[in-house]
Amino acid sequence: DRSSGPRVSDTELRVYKDPSKDELPLLPEELVQDSAKDVTYICPFIGPVRGSLTVTNYRLFFRCTDREPVFGLDLPLGGLSRVEKIGAASSRGDVSYGVVCKDMRNLRFVHKEPENSLKKSVFEVLMKFAFPVSNNMSLFAFEYKQVFPENGWKVYDPLAEYKRQGLPNESWRISKVNDHYELCDSYPATLFVPVTITDEELRRVSSFRAKGRIPVLSWIHPESQAAVVRASQTMVGQNGRRCKEDEKLLQAIMDANAQSHKLFIFDARPSVNAAANKMKGGGFESEDAYQNAELVFLDIHNIHVMRESLRKLKDVVYPNIEESHWLSNLESTHWLEHIKLILAGALRIADKVESGKTSVVVHCSDGWDRTPQLTSLALIMLDSHYRTIRGFQILLEKEWLSFGHRFQQRVGHGDKNHTDADRSPIFLQFIDCVWQMTRQFPAAFEFNEYFLITILDHLYSCLFGTFLCNSEQQRLKEEVPKRTVSLWSFVNSQLEEFVNPLYVHYPSHVLFPTVGIRHLQLWVSYYIRWNPRMRPQEPVHQRYKELLAKRAELQKRVEELQREAANRMASSSSERAGSPTRSITPVQTFV
Amino acid sequence: MLSLGSGGAKSTKPSFVSYVTPEEIKSEKDPPKQEKHPDLLPGEVEFCSANPILKYTQDDLSQRGVFGTLFCTNFRVTFISDEKPQEKTDKTFKNKLYGENDIPLMCVDHIYGVYDEKRKLITGGLVKNKYPSKMIIHCKDLRVFQFSLTFSKEEDAKKIFQGIAHHCLEEKSLKCVFAFSYMGTPSPEMQWKQETVMFDSPEDWTQEMKRTKANCRLVTENENFELSQRLPKYFVIPLTIGDLFSYQGKGLPIWCWSHYSGCALFKASFPPVTQEDGDFQKHLDTMINAVAHNHLYSVKTEDLSESLPNIQDIQQSYNKFKQFFLIENSTDFWLSDVKWFSSLESSGWLDIIRQCLQKAVEVVECLEKDNTNVLITEEEGTDLCCVISSLAQIMLDPYYRTLMGFQSLVQKEWVAGCHAFLDRCNHLHQKDKEYHSPVFLLFLECVWQLVHQHSPAFQFSETYLTVLSDSVHVPVFSTFLFNSSHHRESVMKAESPLAQSGPLSCPTVWDWSVQFDSKAQNFFFNPLYLEKVKHDRAVRKPHKPKHQRNLSLPSTAFKTPPKKGFFKDETDSLKKMLRVKRLSRWRGSPDAPTATTREFFESWQHRPLDYHGLLLPCLDGPAVHIWMQRYLRWIPEVYILGGGSVAVMTKLMELLSQVQDLKRVLEQRDSSQAAKLDHRPYFQHRLLSFDSSGRLSSSFPFAYTCYRSFKPIIPTGLMQSLMVTDSLASQEDEASSVVSFV
């Protein structure tokens, strides 16, 4: 049942079919902290509605009481980025509160301040529970103890995943150098490196790469052996430092692929920014030091530019859309242009690996934002396994979580510091790129749009442990897998909700999306889903499912008739041997 | 293919004239080729030809191409390659009249010549001078052809250039249009004839009135166009109009459609009334009155020429808009990609579409919610009136969302309804630009928006609409050749004795077999269409007419209490009321009426969607889209190999045909039941005979040329696209790390 459980409601206001059935379905360990009657929610679409507000340790729940049918507003506290009082109390003692959400909406409530000044307002309670980290409390994920049939923490086993890729092999080996996260605390324990490079050399390399994030293997082409390698920037600095071991490592990466005598280094940044990094000790590989390597800049901007772009987008889409200037407003946010640059970068990487049979090294500055965007998108293009539901989970676990995308910092789980410059919608941007690809290739992905939206909703909800902390090391230290439930436990226990009925599995298909702005769309059913006028529509999927059911039904009837006919034939075969029977072509099953 | 060194920071300069040197092309000592000639259509005559002509490959920056012969006939410009045709000739979706290298003369939009590396628009003056080294043809169906004339003999080149320019650009008479020479064998009694209502007989109109339960009067007095040449041969008016013949029928409210409540939609030509012209004003008042009498003495009038853009605005906007799709090379493409959204917006085309749909929704609201008669007017009454009335009918009446219903609607409102196709489409290349305007295309665009938003409600596909929009420029059909019924009849009558072999055989566009075989016609049907569940006859309520039953919307909730009855005896005050309503149009202030229409939309939206009931479009910015199939189908940069909506549609069609196969098997098996043959169109062929590996391009079934190697299209000049100038761009990624580095 979609309406209960950990589903984040997908409409602004949920209609309750049975208003008498009271109140909210609490999750295990979810406790009501406070509630207040006579709260007014200023809905930007239907105007002010009165009702009661309940705050639990997991969610904010508003139930309107003055309208038929009864509406509800139900959102996890993890989705809040800011709660504040707006202005002073009015003469009647009414106070306005603004709630800014991470999921593209702002809410406004009006509430009478309690007369007894000792009693806390429900909004003070809200502020406390919305930002547990700032208040020295633990996130709800650590309380939530729902048991699902499947344990999502077991989805990703690095060794099994690399084994699927045919690793280790004669050119690539497992290194235990980071077993205890000593080499690099933001990298996973399991690393794949060329066999010709020793652990000692890797240690030297680590001092030459920002944050010790050395070049390691991400993916290997099953036929050409061209590899996708990820890293952080080199610490070249203004004096043009060099590192013999780093040069040797890149040469070894090139040598591991017999098909090509070249290596492409994709630096995700604009070249100006990459050059500016030299002032601060960073930089990029010079072509003098790295023979046979070609450096390409992909012109993708940094986390601050992306944050600002999303902020502008929110202004443009919420709550109201200016009809006559919609397109130029959309353009002015640059959001889709950033999407285009990221997809274009990933496309060039995938092209070099697939068409050029060349190995590539991908990095940005630290290698944990733009780098996973690019590598994981390129991997989705190259490897159909990552387009399945489980494969996609593995991809996220591997490229994003184990390689230390700083989810805690970028999302700011439970942290009230909403102006933190480390926040940025990098992961959202990646999911948007994936969505763009699912639009272009509607039959190539096993999952549907709802799957992607669910991932984003629980990126913020703090219900599951999956997106907590900044690195594998931190998650182990906090015992996240032991103490929390994985999002994949929930997802994999009800897969049918997330399946794209049109999916066809073509094992060796490489997808090259079109990255022109003309083919990119704003993801309306995510960014504008709160607007009731934008009714989400999936008639294609609906119709397809209906046809599948219809075909199954007819097939059954045909088979029955066949059986009947066969029986009749058998009983009368002595009389009419050889009478022609219509042979029925078996309908090809392909789904 | 591209220089990777600087990550695209250096943009490739527009290499517009990097011509191939003749040595590169192995044209040296080929054996004397056999003269190739195009397969001429019956009645087609070849005018001139030139060889060798280089036709540039569109999807390539390198300016390569194929050599061949360029012909000009009385039907088309055609290019025949010297190379052996590739094996991919068995296209699933092949037009029988013209192929990928044919341009019907009527389809040529503009011709550009490149003279000394400068591109000039070819007009009459330039033709007589020297011929250009390169000729670029922009087509009305948005294809772009580029031919190099430098390889053939000067004389030939000059001749072919002048011939093409003459036949495509010079003003000509209607008789020169190929349709009058075309001798195609008239197809046998076709399905279209049985089902598409042509509205050229009194019976068709009577039938339509019966279908919609209209209580109006059929006018047959114009049979010989004695009443007006601008009015249809037959038409329907409100019952109470007695005087037909004054003012040449100007101001006569022409019935379009009746709502099941009894109120109806009318359109009329209302010339602007001057102050002195009191009599005419009185005449118009009488007409409005007559409309009001149709149902409950209520009427709303709307002067479309005041509230919508005029035909010149439409023309200008479309001219700007189409430029974004006439892409000549990759560099152009990626440059225009950068400012894509603001360019689109500046053309205003999507906004015009939105305004038309909005107006149609307002009309629908009056009919559906208020049950008021509506009279839409305009100076001629045959342009925007056609757009708005057809759209309103599609939204209200599910019959018009079937293929045959839609074709009948186009016949009723546009063809019989006297839309001036000949002038609006400028088939004769008249210099007077005042009359040109893509009004019919605008209508198809609006319909496409509806199809796009509510796909399961339509029996026809977007491919059908695209083909229909192309067919306007195929000079074979009588449908789009005339300015009015009178024009059609007079020309046909004058022409037919001249034709030696019997009467003039001009097929209508609805005879799709002229262009496509039945297999290709399958693409006209929308596999998402939800057919109405057929009830058993026993269950069906006999007294309810079909029309009414189809409109199964919850009308009770919409209806305002019927309080209009008190007008009955107060004709004087009614008149006053009407005058007031007319003068203070609906949209006096821009905000207020939009708000009520918004409410109307939202209350409709809150109800469960019934695809066989009322259908309204969402008109918010993000909901109005570009008709990708029509506009992007020839641009290789946006082909998605193995993707696009075609990937879904082919899968659906395949599944649907399997379901139908199974049904047929069952029907044949089920001997106890008399085989009730299903007359619905079904997909007769396994459609997945085309490449099942999912390698179709998104522009299928249109792009013929896309048998390119499987390579991604990588944008060039990315840096120009995004110059983020503020300080954020130079900020460190890690806010905290700034300290440690400095």
Provide a quick synopsis of the model.
The complex is a heterodimer of chains A (591) and B (742). Chain A is of the alpha+beta class and 591 residues long.
What does this structure look like?
The complex is a heterodimer of chains A (591) and B (742). Chain A contains 18 helices and 15 strands. Chain A has helices at 122-130, 158-164, 199-208, 244-255, 271-276, 303-317, 326-333, 335-354, 370-382, 389-402, 407-412, 426-440, 449-461, 472-477, 480-483, 487-492, 524-527, 539-572; strands at residues 14-15, 32-43, 47-56, 59-64, 71-76, 80-86, 94-101, 106-112, 172-175, 191-194, 216-220, 227-230, 263-267, 293-297, 359-363. Chain A has an eight-stranded antiparallel β-sheet with strand order 1-5-4-3-2-8-7-6, with helices on one face. In chain A, strands 11-12-15-13-14 form a five-stranded mixed β-sheet, sandwiched between helices. In chain A, strand 11 and strand 12 (227-230) form a beta hairpin. In chain A, helix 3 crosses helix 4 (244-255), helix 8 crosses helix 9 (370-382) and helix 9 (370-382) packs antiparallel against helix 10 (389-402). The relative contact order of chain A is 0.11. Helices cover 34% and strands 11% of the residues of chain B. Chain B is globular. An eight-stranded antiparallel β-sheet of chain B has the order 4-3-2-1-8-7-5-6, with helices on one face. Chain B has a four-stranded mixed β-sheet with strand order 11-12-14-13, with helices on both faces. Chain B has a two-stranded antiparallel ribbon with strand order 9-10. In chain B, helix 10 crosses helix 11. The longest helix of chain B has 25 residues, at 645-669. Chain B is an alpha+beta fold. The chains are: A alpha+beta (591), B alpha+beta (742). Chains A and B meet through helix 5, strand 14, helix 6, helix 7 and helix 8 of A and helix 8, helix 9, helix 10, helix 21 and helix 23 of B.
